[in-house]
Each structure stands twice: as structure tokens, then as C-alpha cells.
Amino acid sequence: MYAPRRILAPVDFGTCSSASLAQAVAITRSQPEATLRVLHVYEPPYYAPEALVNLPGEPPLPMVDYVRQEAERQLEGFLSVRRDAADLGGRLDARIAAGLAFEEVPREARACGADLIVMGTHGRQGLSHLLLGSVAERVIRNAPCPVLVVRAGGQEPPAPLAFDRVLVPIDFGPDANAAARLGIAMSARGARGVTLLHVVPTPAYAGEVLVPRAGGMKLGEYLHDEAQARLEAFAAEVSPSPDERPNVLVLQGSPAEQTIHVCVEDDVHLVVMGTKGRHGLAHFFVGSVAERVLRHAHCPVLITRAVFGEPAPA
């Protein structure tokens, strides 16, 4: 089973933070040697750093100091009402950082040697998402370790890091192997509790095209059979033993839509995905399957890359 030792939980005091912190605390409590760092990132007052704040009965306080003290006070108050967090004692520490969350969270993860980030997402969509993006998604692109994203009001997992039904979408890219092995490590039933899903983006005209070398088989059927054989071979490669292999499922259509559909139909408890970390104009117009699943999945989503510890390619 996957057993992280150093867990980082960014919080912004919203409902998503409450859900993600509860998950982070549960994970930490389930691992006797694990530690949890709670991080709040606040934006310093770029607009008026030289301003003074007049508080009743106190000398004027520079705006920079006032904002920092408020962040400390809010973080202390947020944690004070969480008895489960208090029970961790010396295994939990909290700190604040000034800056932008999507920059400071990966930086803190590297500094503290985190091997898991647990955070919430607001699932922003539409124009606001295109213009502002999601902090969770931007953290994922630069994180040095796997990121477990928890949605407020989403499905509660049956155990901190032991999920009965794990779905791992596979596109056979460089991050597929890492995602599959991590999914198996997260499963309460080992490989038997994992389904490897490959979605064939079959073109609309596939039903009319025949493949001569396959005996005149229709292109759609040929692509499906080829994907099935490749996925079964991949499952054997990542299986911990010949007698314990994950389930395989091949569908046709949109990878993101089919992944979300299977999540609902099979009551999936966790999705484990790799991400290519697409940046720039291609990301703006196309996005990534992982990020679309993040915004719509009803269960936690764990994102990993083939190689951690290096920034995503530009």
C-alpha cells in the first residue's frame, strides 16, 4: 500500500479546504510515522505596502504586517476547531507563506520533502476557468510529488488511503506506468480492485472504413481489438504477480467523458491519472483530460507524473 511519510495540505479556509484537510488528517493518522504540514498562502498587499492600519488602542501597523498577522490568526482559528487535527499533536505543524498559491505550494513541497499533496478544488468552469485557471490544476503542473485532489461535498472514501474501486485511465504515454502502479498501491484489494481504462478516440467515419490486413474488419472494431490486446499486455506488465492482475476496460469516444461516465456507473472511489503537464496556448484551447476529470469527478482524483522532482516541460 502507498504510505506517504510527509504530507502537505494547502488550505484557503473554504469548504474545499475543510474536506481536503479532513482527508489529509485521516491519511496522516493512518500512517504512524507520517507528518502533516498545513500551509496557507496569502497575497501580500502589493497595492499599498506602505499603508498603515489603525487598530483601536494600538499604534499604527504597516499594512504588510497587518495582513501577515491576519493570515496567522485565520490559520490558527481554522485549525483550532478541528479536533481531529489537534489529535495529531507534534506530527502536525502549520505555516503561512506570502505569494501566489500555485507557486508557493510546489515550492513548499520541495522544501519540506513532501511525498503527497492533499488539496481541494472549487471546480471552476467556463470563462472564469479560462481566465483564472484552477489553483489545484496549476499546482499539479509543477508539483514534485503526487497530488490528491478532494472536492467539497464529494464522495467520502471508505478509508484514508485504501480504496475499494480504483480507476486508472491509460493512454500508454510516458506517465501511464507510474499511474497504474500507484493505482494498485492505493487499492484496498490490490490489483483486483483496479480497473485500467483505455478510451479509443474513434473518428466518426470509422464505421465505414474497412481494414484489409484485418480481413476487412471495420476500423472501429479493429482499433478496439488492438487497444484491448495492448491494454491486457500492459496490465500484465504492471501486475504485482501473474495471479493478481487489474481489470481492463476499452471504450470508444472522448477520454474525459468516458472516464467521468465510468466513475458514476461503477461507483469509483478514486481516480489515478498521469498528466503531461500541457502549458501555454495548447493548454488554453485544449486543456488536458486530467484537468477535465478533476472538474467533474465525484470522487477524489490522484494525479502523478512519470518523473517527479522536475518541473513540467514548458
Task: Explain how this protein is built.
The protein has 314 residues and is of the alpha/beta class. The chain folds into two domains: 1-153, Rossmann fold; 155-314, HUPs (Rossmann fold), CATH 3.40.50.620. Helix content is 39%, strand content 21%. It contains eleven helices and 14 strands. The protein has helices at 15-30, 63-80, 83-86, 101-112, 126-132, 135-142, 176-186, 219-238, 255-265, 280-286, 289-296; strands spanning 6-10, 35-42, 52-53, 61-62, 92-98, 116-121, 147-151, 166-169, 194-200, 210-211, 217-218, 247-252, 270-274, 301-304. The strands form three sheets. Strands 5-2-1-6-7-14-13-8-9-12 form a ten-stranded mixed beta sheet, sandwiched between helices. Strands 3-4 form a two-stranded antiparallel sheet. Helix 4 packs across helix 6 and helix 9 packs parallel to helix 11 (289-296). It is elongated, with a radius of gyration of 22 Å.
